[in-house]
Specification:
The protein is of the alpha+beta class. The protein is built from 15 helices and 24 strands. Strand 9 and strand 10 form a beta hairpin. It has four domains: 100 residues, Rossmann fold (3-Layer(aba) Sandwich), CATH 3.40.50; 70 residues, ATP-grasp fold, A domain (Dna Ligase, domain 1, 2-Layer Sandwich), CATH 3.30.1490; 238 residues, ATP-grasp fold, B domain (D-amino Acid Aminotransferase, Chain A, domain 1), CATH 3.30.470.20; 40 residues, no CATH class. The strands form seven sheets. An eight-stranded antiparallel sheet has the order 13-12-9-10-11-14-21-19, with helices on both faces. The protein has a five-stranded parallel sheet with strand order 3-2-1-4-5. Strands 7-6-8 form a three-stranded antiparallel sheet, with helices on one face. Helix content is 31%, strand content 25%. Bound molecules: ligand MV4. The site of ligand MV4 has 17 residues, from strand 8 and strand 13.
Length: 495
């Protein structure tokens, strides 16, 4: 049992956790880096501790500083949010040995799901459909060639320590397989300190459909349907929705049951997500399991009228869940757009800097999860997501309309954001028809506007309607200029 929670994270998810703790009568401790002194999570937590310099490796990723902050504040639990230490089995283990509750699954479950070949093996044994390919790690090129011949080309090489698209190589024939095998293995060794690869047949134009799971410590397992996350750019999700346009109640039941079977194999507890690829014939295959609360969890909360964060914490407190699976059906259609401080006209280059003005949409069925405000300076050291716009309505058509109008009302001045590209995607006939796959952004979607750097900006907040054109490049005043781009390591990237 615990009554004080340290949040080992920042941004909107730290604020989301603070709110859930408040509602459960728990007090909160924020930790922050020197770059986050003015961050919202610091302001709204009951206590706060500065844990180090801006660099994630010396703050939000540093076990010792976080454990020390928990000890000096007498916190009883650590909520890791997503990214940073959320899927670090060693960290979860150290929390336990320090007498701190890690709000998440047990270390063994995190560790098994973290090795993608082990995870696949566990799921195969549980009877969950997996993508045809190697039985675990490939021994060498000869081994890879034999497996590729038996499943048929094209095949894909994946790093066992990778995930989320990192370290993947598609091979259309034996020649490419030979070349890529050595490249992929060398890359994996460099990026993940583990050269091991596994091989799969390529699923063409798949849909990315993930199942939300929730389990307590008393053996109760539930699923809260799916989220369709097929709209991605370079493995970064842009838009998520539930229900998926390709889902049927019958398929949802089968995928949900498969996901629960898999979770039971590792005695999973807390919230988790089973990712599947679904092909055009609606065959589904296990891909990865994420052992954390996800960025896109709000669409499930909205569609199912459930508070996943509160439930995650209740499970960590040892409470028993008393849902009835047959009553867990989507009540709403929900969509989320991730608003990033990135410039869609400059290859999505991060655009940290000062938010001069911000107006967020509202009204029934509109939710904005964010931790930024007018005058806030977005630091260049962390993930570029600044807000999530989530809507819900009774039908998909109404949800799309509500999202489209809400995007029009979402104004951010001072830095470029991804709001404009979301409007274009929502206007696209294939998005509106629901006939998109993971190939959407690269193939179906062609941006109408040429990528010319915009020199003038619209001051829409001051004069709505007839907007004024002003110089977008005013004389720099100390920190209002966009700082040099800081390379964020893959580890520091959130999802
Ligand atoms: C695949 C695949 C097709 N066939 N595996 C990308 C993220 C990583 N978790 C696995 N990914 C893929 N694995 C097989 N056997 C296609 C993808 C893929 C993808 C998956 C989900 C969402 C977007 C994607 C974009 C490109 C490729």
């Amino acid at each position: 049992m615990f009554n004080k929670v340290l949040i080992a994270n920042r941004g909107e998810i730290a604020l989301r956790v603070i709110r859930a703790c408040r509602e459960l009568g728990l007090t909160t401790v924020a930790v922050y880096s020197e770059a986050d002194r003015d961050a919202v999570h610091v302001r709204f937590a009951d206590e706060d501790v500065c844990i180090g310099p801006a660099s994630s490796s010396q703050s939000y990723l540093d076990f010792k500083r976080i454990i020390a902050a928990a000890e000096v504040t007498n916190a009883g639990a650590i909520h890791p949010g997503y990214g940073f230490l959320a899927e670090n089995a060693d960290f979860a283990e150290i929390c336990e040995s320090c007498g701190l509750t890690f709000i998440g699954p047990r270390p063994h479950a995190i560790r098994q799901m973290g090795d993608k070949a082990v995870a696949k093996d566990v799921m195969r044994k549980a009877g969950v459909p997996v993508i045809p390919g190697s039985d675990g790690v490939i021994a060498g090129f000869e081994d890879a060639r034999e497996i590729a011949d038996s499943v048929g080309y094209p095949v894909i090489l994946k790093a066992v320590a990778g995930g989320g698209g990192k370290g993947m190589r598609v091979c259309k024939d034996e020649m490419e397989l030979e070349r890529n095998f050595h490249i992929a293995s060398t890359e994996a060794a460099k990026a993940f300190s583990n050269p091991d690869l596994y091989l799969e047949k390529v699923i063409v134009n798949p849909h990315h459909v993930e199942i939300q799971l929730l389990a307590d410590q008393h053996g109760n397992y539930y699923h809260f349907g799916e989220r369709d996350c097929s709209i991605q750019r370079r493995h970064q999700k842009l838009i998520e929705e539930t229900p998926s346009p390709l889902m049927t109640p019958e398929l949802r039941a089968r995928m949900g049951e498969a996901a629960i079977k898999g979770a039971k194999m590792v005695d999973y507890i807390g919230v988790g997500t089973m990712e599947f690829l679904v092909d055009d014939a609606r065959n589904f295959y296990f891909m990865e399991m994420n052992t954390r609360i996800q960025v896109e969890h709000p669409i499930t909360e909205e569609a199912y009228e459930v508070d996943l964060l509160q439930n995650q914490i209740k499970v960590a407190l040892g409470e028993k869940l008393e849902f009835k699976q047959e009553l867990l059906t989507p009540k709403w259609h929900s969509i989320e757009c991730r608003i990033n401080a990135e410039d869609p006209d400059a290859d999505f280059r991060p655009s940290p800097g000062r938010i001069e003005a911000i107006h967020t949409p509202g009204g029934p069925g509109v939710r904005v999860d964010k931790a930024v405000y007018a005058g806030y300076f977005i630091p260049p050291y962390y993930d570029s997501m600044i807000a999530k716009l989530i809507v819900r309505a009774r039908t998909r058509r109404e949800a799309i309309a509500k999202m489209r109008h809400s995007l029009d009302e979402f104004i951010v001045e001072g830095i470029p954001t991804t709001i404009s590209i979301h409007k274009e995607i929502l206007d696209h006939p294939d998005f509106i028809a629901g006939t998109y796959s993971t190939a959407f952004l690269e193939t179906q979607f062609k941006r109408e506007k040429a990528s010319i750097p915009v020199k003038k900006k619209l001051v829409t907040l001051r004069r709505s309607g007839e907007s004024t054109l002003v110089d977008a490049n005013p004389t720099p005043i100390n920190d209002t200029t966009t700082p040099e781009r800081v390379e964020v390591s893959a580890e520091e990237k959130k999802e």
